């Protein structure tokens, strides 16, 4: 596991394939119940997040969130010495939930099994962050609390600052990325695209 973690940071062109687990973990689930719960949350918040961000930006944020939350999970697991699988799907879903709750904190939410009990989206987000922080600090193994926190913090950051910093300025960023990749490919002796 440690070897895989460090290969993400190498500049060797042959290591590109090793980054795929972080992206593919965005679609990974522990069980059928885990998948059903995640899909219900995604379905519940999908229309709100797509109306906030649009389809293309939503896909970019969702995939980025899966990679970021998986990375946060890996770092937390390496720090604690627990080498269990990291499943980025929950972190990506948590990004969606946190983004919507941050943009619409006064929206009323309810739990499917307790529809008569409503609460604000802002209160729900605070409770989820508190629960996952406690879970991470106390070493609970019920959920991947680090992935949840990474996803929630990324979602809050993105709708507050990231949209302006990244999405609205994506053209210069994409151009800089392509230039950087072209320079690195040329230095490594590999084929240039």
Structure description:
This protein has 193 residues and is mainly alpha-helical. It has one domain: Rhomboid-like fold (Up-down Bundle). Helix content is 69%, strand content 6%. It contains 8 helices and 2 strands. It has helices at residues 2-7, 20-24, 32-53, 55-80, 88-103, 121-138, 145-167, 170-187, and strands at 108-111, 114-120. A two-stranded antiparallel ribbon has the order 1-2. Helix 5 runs antiparallel to helix 6. It is globular. 26% of the residues are buried.
Q: Would you spell out the secondary-structure blueprint of this structure?
A:
Elements lengths: L1 H6 L12 H5 L7 H22 L1 H26 L7 H16 L4 E4 L2 E7 H18 L6 H23 L2 H18 L6
Helix pairs in contact: 3-4, 3-5, 4-5, 4-7, 5-6, 5-7, 6-7
CATH class: Mainly Alpha
Distance between the termini: 31 Å
User: Biggest β-sheet, characterized?
Assistant: 2 strands, antiparallel
Number-wise, the strands total: 2
H/I helix tally: 8
Q: How would you sum up the global shape?
A: globular
Sequence of secondary-structure elements: HHHHHEEHHH
How large a portion of the residues is in β-strands, by DSSP E? 5-15%
Write down the domain tally: 1
Which parts are unreliable, with pLDDT below 50 for 5 consecutive residues or more? 1-12
What value does the average pLDDT take?
A: 80
Strand arrangement, largest sheet?
Answer: 1-2
Q: How helix-rich are the residues, as a percent range?
A: 55-70%
């Amino acid at each position: 596991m440690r070897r895989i973690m460090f290969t993400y940071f190498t500049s060797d062109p042959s290591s590109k394939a090793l980054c795929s687990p972080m992206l593919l973990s965005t679609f990974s689930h522990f069980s059928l119940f885990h998948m059903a719960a995640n899909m219900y949350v995604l379905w519940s918040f999908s229309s709100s997040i797509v109306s906030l961000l649009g389809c293309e930006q939503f896909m970019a944020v969702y995939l980025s969130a899966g990679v970021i939350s998986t990375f946060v999970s890996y770092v937390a697991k390496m720090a604690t010495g627990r080498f269990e699988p990291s499943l980025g799907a929950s972190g990506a879903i948590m990004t969606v939930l946190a983004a919507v709750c941050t943009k619409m904190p006064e929206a009323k939410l309810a739990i499917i099994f307790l529809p008569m009990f409503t609460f604000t989206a802002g209160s729900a987000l605070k409770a989820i962050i508190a629960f996952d922080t406690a879970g991470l600090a106390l070493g609970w193994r019920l959920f991947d609390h680090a992935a949840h926190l990474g996803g929630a913090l990324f979602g809050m950051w993105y709708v507050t600052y990231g949209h302006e910093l990244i999405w609205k300025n994506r053209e210069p960023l994409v151009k800089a990325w392509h230039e950087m990749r072209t320079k690195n490919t040329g230095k490594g002796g590999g084929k240039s695209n």
